[in-house]
Amino acid sequence: MKAACVLALCLIGLINQAVWGAQAKRELHFPDTSIGALYLVPSDAPCGEAALGRSIAEGNAQSTRFVAVPSNGRLMLQVNRNFLELLKTHKPINLDGIDTLKINISQGEVGGGDCDQVLCLVTHLKGIEKLRYLDLDQSDASDKGLSDVAVMRGLETISMTESNIKGACFKEFSKLPKLRSLNFERASAPDKNYELLAKIPNLESLSVRWSTIGTHQFEIFTHCKKMRYLNLSKNGKIDNDSLKNLAKMPQLLQLSVEETSVSDAGLAYLSNCPQLEDLNLRGTQVSDKGMKHLLCLKKLRIIGLEKTKVTPTGLSSLKSLPLKKISVPNASMSRNQFALLHKQFPQAKLAVPFVEEKESDLNAIFSPSH
Q: What pTM did the predictor assign?
């Protein structure tokens, strides 16, 4: 029995290593009072609730503790109100070993100002310059709180979804040499603030879902010459004319226009992006007629066509592309149609909406061939 338990633990360890990668122990030093919760988050997970959904809780940030952090993971500290109270008393707090700082202690308290206080007071903390991710999603943080963000010179990603930030702080972001990614979703800013994005020297990724983005704002984004990943989803003002701006973004690798007003005519402008690898057209008005415009995308590996008018015939016309993942248009196709698609795209994973089939049957149909 004991041998079986040891074997089981070994197997769990091997599985965890396969999923998470090799681990390295970090020694963390916190006050005796808990200042928040610790989470292990996969490196490829976004900030915000999506990160928490894919995380592993590691307990409270309290006293000295050791945490094994995998090579493909990051350690997140979601601070609590004790964190703020200790900052107010100038209690020394050590953030060495923390990759992501998540601040949303005033969630739902509009105008509370607590997150701004935290942002202003953390600037002197040990390890603050090593932070890689700053998560302000669903917080009362404002531009004022980020006036000294330049001390966090190691930041690579800042997420500000559903905050009080209006973009004036983008000027300070230009002082962050490693900043590559911004999430500014469910938010809006005046054009003069969006124009500040072009001054961020290494900005590669921008997500502005559910915002007030239209053709003019898209044109402003084209001045970010290192932009590789652009998410314009859920913006109804993005239409076919908006995609004319792609002529100024030949370096794009990933584009999402999910649930925008884009249709077949707009797809013609994708020829300006020959490096495109990932294209999300879910919920748009595209149909079989527009698929011919995608044939020039010789590096396209991922495509999202859920909730579009594309039929199996239209999808089949893309079989010359090196697709590895396809979100198929709908679940109303017959079993034979799915099987045919699987044959036409043997190296691709077919992601489908809910279909009433046995799981074993679905796996047989939708997994890549070997």
A: 0.87
